[in-house]
Design goal:
Elements: H1 9-16, E1 24-29, E2 37-43, E3 46-52, H2 61-73, E4 91-93, E5 96-102, H3 114-131, H4 144-154, H5 160-174, E6 183-186, E7 195-198, E8 201-205, E9 212-215, H6 216-228, E10 229-230, E11 233-234, H7 236-249, H8 254-280, H9 293-305
Antiparallel strand pairs: 1-2, 2-3, 3-5, 4-5, 6-9, 7-8, 10-11
């Protein structure tokens, strides 16, 4: 979430006329995240988040918004998009696709405890189970093809050590097959800043704008990498808390254990690449946040160095 497009007061007031949400009280830009323009919006009817989509086209957005509504209506803690008076979730603001969603209570956590890890594992398992009946389909835009292309684009900008790590990892992952692993709807970006808590209670998962249909184990690896990596290794207790709670909702398959170490590396590479891309090819914005690529370089190096040991961080 960032602010690339500035919205004036009169523009927002005119936009809100399409909704039954009362009068505008206040609004402010949100600097977290990197992809879209986001504002907190408060009206006399409630509190909302307004998103202007900077890189996602009109044709692609119904998948995300319909998925958010579907999950919220099936008990997965998440923000429901707001329909306008004609029942549409998607509108236009400043010639860009725009949508309002509920602003959920709670706040993200920096250092999750075991109860919070269990809560996010249970919710992710719930999401994956409910997602099996969601009718929408969308390809993974940050999948193997994107990773290979982005790696080639970035190699000239890296020092010798980083370039060697990247080239070796791309070669390793080219040998990794995902056949036979369960697929379904995934969030694909379930970091700590995309989950809200009130104490140990998960109040909601947010920011579904990387969601797609892909390997469920990848989603679990993305989550574990962010929630559990501390002091140059995965925290065993937190990792097992997420995996056990997830497993109670969606029992994990035997072949998922065999592919777990490689999938952790796939997830680490994806975010190392995207953060390097943001660093070397930034987009202009009024309030933007470039996240540290070295965080995921360290995660990837640790997974390479402790590849065999990662298989033991598993349930059952």
């Amino acid at each position: 979430m960032s602010v690339y497009t500035t919205i004036e007061l009169q523009e927002l007031e005119a936009f809100l006329l399409a909704y039954d949400l009362g009068a505008l009280v206040e609004y402010r830009g949100i600097s977290d995240g990197v992809e879209n323009t986001n504002y907190f919006v408060t009206t006399t009817g409630g509190r909302y988040v307004l998103t202007l989509f900077e890189s996602i086209g009109f044709d692609d957005l119904p998948y995300y918004l319909d998925l958010m509504a579907f999950l919220a209506e099936h008990g997965v803690p998440s923000a429901h998009p707001l329909p306008d008076r004609q029942g549409a979730y998607l509108r236009t603001l400043k010639s860009k696709p725009a949508a309002l969603v509920q602003r959920l209570p709670g706040a993200s956590v920096t250092e999750p405890n075991l109860e919070q890890c269990r809560a996010i594992g249970e919710a992710l398992g719930h999401l994956h189970v409910e997602g099996l009946t969601f009718a929408g389909q969308r390809d993974h835009t940050r999948g193997p093809h994107w990773r290979r292309q982005t790696a080639e684009q970035l190699l000239p900008f890296l020092n010798a050590g980083d370039a060697a790590l990247l080239q070796d990892e791309v070669k390793f992952q080219a040998q990794f097959t995902r056949s036979g692993l369960p697929w379904g709807v995934i969030h694909a970006d379930l970091f700590r800043d995309n989950a809200l808590f009130s104490g140990d209670r998960l109040t909601g998962i947010i920011d579904f704008y990387y969601a797609c249909n892909s390997v469920l184990l990848y989603d679990l690896a993305v989550t574990v990498n962010d929630w559990c990596f501390r002091d140059n290794a995965l925290d065993a207790d937190k990792t097992l808390a997420i995996l056990s709670a997830y497993h109670a909702r969606r029992p994990l398959w035997a072949n998922e254990r065999a592919n777990w170490p490689a999938m952790l590396r796939v997830a680490a590479l994806r975010f190392w690449l995207s953060r390097l891309q943001d660093l070397f090819f930034p987009r202009p914005g009024a309030l933007t946040q470039i996240k540290d690529p070295d965080e995921f370089k360290r995660i990837l190096r640790a997974h390479v160095d402790h590849y065999q040991a990662l298989r033991e961080l598993w349930v059952g």
